[in-house]
Amino acid sequence: MWTETLSNDQDILAKKLVTSVVKQLTQCIQSKGKACLAVSGGTTPIAFFKQLSEQELDWAKVTIILVDERWLPIEDKDSNEKLVRDYLLQNKAKRAYFLGLKNDATLPSEGIMDCETQLRTQVEHIDIVILGMGLDGHTASWFHNSTQLAALLDVDTSAWCLPVEDEFLPQARMSLTWRFIKRAEKIYLHFSGDEKNAVFIKACEEKTEALPVSHLLHQDGINISVYRTQ
Question: What whole-number distance in Å separates Cα of residue 155 and Cα of residue 68?
Answer without folding.
Answer: 18
